[in-house]
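Blinded run. Sample ID left blank on purpose so nobody reads anything into the name before looking at the predicted structure. Input follows.
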Amino acid sequence: MDPSVFLRLLIFNLAVRLPLGASTAAIAIKEALSSASLYVRIKLADGRFSKCSPLHIAPCDAVGWFAAPKGPAVAFDFSKLELSRFAKGPVNLTLEVFACFDDCCPTVLPSSQDWVLGSTTMKVDLRNSMEERVTEHYSGWRDVEMKDGPCFSQLHVSVSTEKEERFVFKASRGPAASNSRVCHVQDSQRSRSLFSYLFSRDSVMKGRGKTGGLKLVKKWIKKKLGLADHKAEKQDCSVIVQDKSGSPAAIALMTEPFVPTLDTNSITSAKPGSWLILQPRNIGKWAAWGTLCAWTDPTEGSLTYRFERLMDSLDGIPVSYSSISRKDGGQFSIDLPTDRTRGFVMSASVKGEGKRKSPALNVEVAAKFVRSKEDLAAYMALAAALDLSVDACRACS
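Blinded prediction complete.
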């Protein structure tokens, strides 16, 4: 099982420095922006790749870099095949600064109500970045030029690339049976089956002799949710990730069903659907690995999720909290903060309600966070649980 090489383009240390001096124009701009939030739209390769991020406001007298929230604002990930489109030469990296006067954060495009302050463009050469583990491309202040006027602000940006290895899987759904479904997970590099999914509404441990898992589930439910033991017996919807020998390598167990409220007919954050991810430990023993909660927002048409990593003490560490479109789907991702950047852990492409017939579930896992096949299986179980949460929320709508 060999990992694939990826290149991650990081745009971080983003901050804007507002106009210096006490001119009439500078004072007017500062007053106008006092009630706005500042964002930057980052476009790579003439807009073929585009993302948005909030901006940190720097002191007006800032000269070099200053203390600001660490971690990249935006990351673009490319496989070796995707990098071939940049083989002809350097590409344009455009950063467009704009002010948002709404409460919501924009995702990709500024709206008509937003005020575009200007933009700056630089060249980034990705052709030789795969030869080094880390390549620094730029770090410093740049003038933000307005389309029809002078420069009133400056933008600080750092740009670098990092080479990393990832395991890439494509899971295809098999034919649905009455109580279970089996699908195979393949290593995308060699197209060989490594794991299989078993979707079941039967008891997750029935006929397997692994009673340690259910005891741990009951203990976790009683501590975290305050439910009685008999309720644990009813939450038997499960996803079992099996290795090639048929042995369970990870399990996603539904601990709270997806039940809509009577007044909104949707899954609310007050009572979300929940999953518990389990890993095998020794013979006949299981350990809690993580929890996933999901609920819907009928006004936004989105599914919100929260993933927490569980340690031996069963205390959850928040890892990922975001939302995806229920109609179009989206990318579920986990990035952990580190001293310099945000380390990529995993991502999964989740299909929307209108694309559920599309069979593939694509999952990427960083090789540096994988120590065994059980670690890989746990991430696969997590991706499957989120994918099934979309199905559950659609059924409740």
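Unblinding after everyone has recorded impressions. The chain is about 15% helix and 45% strand.
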